Automatic annotation (TrEMBL):
Phylogenetic placement of the source organism: Bacteria, Bacillati, Bacillota, Bacilli, Bacillales
Record bears the keyword Cell membrane: yes
UniProt xrefs under InterPro entries: Bact_solute-bd_prot1, SBP
Protein's name according to its UniProt entry: ABC transporter substrate-binding protein
PANTHER family associated with the record: ARABINOSE-BINDING PROTEIN-RELATED, POLYGALACTURONAN_RHAMNOGALACTURONAN-BINDING PROTEIN YTCQ
Organism: Paenibacillus aestuarii
Length: 481
């Protein structure tokens, strides 16, 4: 999941336990963990020497970390000479832990993270290309589109866990009260003007309290999610055009900034939006303080249902002051007449090396472990927990016997958005991607947070981004329209 996109698991946990950031629920059955895919044995090396593979893993799904002991046992049963040593981390600190270990030259063999971080770690020289170690059976197990996200140039740097769409989520009751045809929106999408009008209708004041039309988490790392998701739908699906010009100096970028600020000025979003983190905006959604929330993944339907069940059972662990919510998946709006380009999140198991070149045997063992985590029963169990689509044949087969309760309208909405999903761009040079990430971290995120807080105007932010882009990419390396 930048990245970027990975606070959603901790949000889920808030849904499942009001007082804890860890996921709740009964422990999964032993039979639902461990990859037993047909292709798993294909990666077996001839060597029987003992080896340990380390993995740094956040709470990918609500019950994911609860299965760590069983995952390690199942992996050892599959490969008796190998040990999978898992270091758990929260979403809040996994990136910092990984960066600290990478900077020290001793990263874990495997780390879970967003595929968009691959260029950064390649530039640091410690990401391991597994092209020569991944077997044909492993590669052929995957859908092509998500696997491509784990590539850069001709290299493959791990295996994807899932491919999901960054969408919005609505309260069905509130949408219908506001006269919004949410099924039509699911099927056909909506423009910025249509979206703006809809969320205005969603603003209601009752007993001195305001229910907003739209709330998006923008505090901390979530700020770039909001901007990035909307930028894709504003004619800028990537930071770079096909001729490698930096895209966020386009006039569309300035127009987008004006539009996003306008939603706050309309009163459709809270003026204190800059203080809303992922946990708070999900709490606002479950307690009826907003009609639409973002970003939303399919798994949020599962989280809402879990909280609904607790409310029905009068379970004290339900989110305080929450109400029953029928969660509706919605696409993000399009801007400036651009076509829909759905933001996808492809997170996965990145493979690392230390300062010394790994042995052929250890490299093969790391690949076995990464594939074990990303396929078969492990992937099927995790992705069902997330309501995420299965991206390997082995996981799809395992999932056939697993029950999952999803709203068919939401399934269809996600499928529609996946048809417009932004495909991977492995052609962007690593050095350009690294510069773009640096510009995003040092300029875009703080300026956008200032914009949301009303401290920076859209023009001021645009000018700052353009100046930084010229410095990074040169006058001829940016879009001028």
């Amino acid at each position: 999941m930048k990245k970027k996109m990975h606070v959603f698991a901790s949000v889920l946990a808030l849904t499942l336990a009001a007082t804890s950031l860890t996921a709740c629920g009964s422990k999964s059955d032993t039979g639902k963990t461990g990859a037993a895919s047909p292709a798993a044995s294909a990666g077996a090396a001839n060597s029987t020497a003992k080896d340990t593979i380390t993995a740094l893993l956040p709470p990918v799904s609500p019950n994911y970390q609860k299965n760590f002991d069983q995952m390690a046992k199942d992996f050892n049963a599959l490969y008796p000479n190998l040990t999978l040593k898992i270091e758990p981390a929260s979403w809040e600190d996994v990136k910092q832990k990984l960066d600290t270990q990478v900077n020290a030259g001793s990263p874990p063999d495997i780390a879970f993270g967003g595929s968009d971080g691959i260029p950064k770690y390649i530039q640091q020289g410690l990401l391991m290309d597994i092209t020569d170690a991944a077997t044909p059976d492993m590669i052929n197990d995957y859908d092509k589109a998500p696997l491509d996200y784990m590539k850069n140039g001709k290299g493959l740097y791990g295996f994807p866990a899932y491919m999901e769409v960054h969408a919005l989520g609505g309260n069905k009751e509130y949408l219908e009260k506001a006269g919004i045809d949410w099924k039509k929106v699911q099927q056909n999408g909506w423009t910025y003007d249509e979206f703006r009008d809809a969320i205005k209708k969603g603003v209601v004041t009752e007993n001195g309290k305001t229910r907003y039309g739209f709330v998006f988490a923008v505090k901390g790392v979530a700020a770039v999610d909001y901007l990035g998701i909307m930028a894709k739908n504003a004619g800028m699906p990537y930071p770079f055009t096909s001729d490698m010009k930096y895209a966020y100096t386009s006039k569309n970028y300035l127009g987008l900034l004006k539009d996003l600020r306008q939603l706050i000025d309309d009163g459709s979003m809270p003026k204190e939006l800059s203080s809303v983190d992922a946990g708070k905006r999900w709490n606002m959604f479950l307690t009826g303080q907003t009609m639409i929330t973002g970003k939303g993944l399919a798994v949020f339907e599962n989280s809402a249902k879990a909280n609904n069940a607790k409310l029905a059972a009068k379970d004290a662990s339900a989110v305080k002051d929450s109400i029953p919510v029928d969660y509706v998946v919605l696409p993000a709006p399009t801007f400036q007449g651009a076509k829909a380009s759905s933001a996808t999140v492809v997170d996965g198991y990145m493979t690392f090396r230390g300062k010394k070149e790994p042995t052929t045997e250890h490299k093969a063992n790391v690949v076995k472990a990464a594939y074990f985590l990303a396929s078969g029963k492990v992937a099927a169990t995790t992705n069902n927990d997330l309501f995420a689509a299965h991206i390997t044949k082995s996981a799809k087969k395992e999932a056939e016997s697993m029950k999952i309760d999803r709203n068919p309208d939401n399934v269809a909405a996600v499928d529609n958005m996946l048809k417009n999903a932004t495909p991977a761009r492995s052609d962007i040079p690593t050095e350009l991607s690294a510069k773009a990430i640096k510009l995003e971290t040092e300029v875009i995120v703080p300026k956008f947070q200032g914009l949301i807080a009303g401290e920076v105007t859209p023009q001021q932010m645009y000018d700052a981004v353009k100046a930084a882009a010229i410095q990074a990419f040169g006058e001829n390396g940016i879009v001028k329209d």
